[in-house]
Amino acid sequence: MRDPTRRFxxxxxxxxxxxxxxxxxxxxxxxxxxxxxxxxxxTTDDLTILIERNVRxxxxxxxxxxxxxxxxxxxxxAVGHQPAIAIxxxxxxxERRANRLRTTLxxxxxxxxxxxxxxxxxxxxxxxxxxxxxxxxxxKRETMIDAPQTDWxxxxxxxxxxxxxxxxxxxxxxxxxAVTASKRLPxxxxxxxxxxxxxxxxxxxxxxxxxxxxxxxxxxxxxxxxVRTPTLFD
Length: 234
Known about the structure:
The chain is of the alpha/beta class. Helix content is 48%, strand content 14%.
């Protein structure tokens, strides 16, 4: 579809369920080959190996200060080559940031898998500067888990990050008993009584942060931030 940001002549459009399916397929195939079974969480080592098999280079200890003090990941694209991923050194060097590191790795993998084609097309068509042989996406901390849909590249990478770490099928299977027990249909409000338990179950199974779990449940329709307006029938 036409790219409203005008960065490209056209940009890829993916329905959320298409991103979910592609991410889950990649992770499941990897886990079956790597571990012999599909189980979660997807560890840092798992993600590192998965990424190394899908990019030309992964630098876990990069100095990204030239791109900004709040930059945590960069994906580089080059003519005729697979993407390369760089992660800010402080994330990999601090064990207390393990969840953020995994979110960032999954986010950059999203860029590498879903956006390389548009860059390759732009290189070949001259949409980028004719002399350009490389380009990059710089990702900041505040848009690593969620981003507005107007920033389509970051939104797609954010969605892919959640889909890699918390695959749709696995989340549905995990929460089905709790939804059934509630005797109500989702979405449940994020400030409601059900939300904390749902979020905690996701944190425990997939080893993600509270914010990442909440955003994923919102995107999958289990939780909502919208306030329902009472009707005459309530």
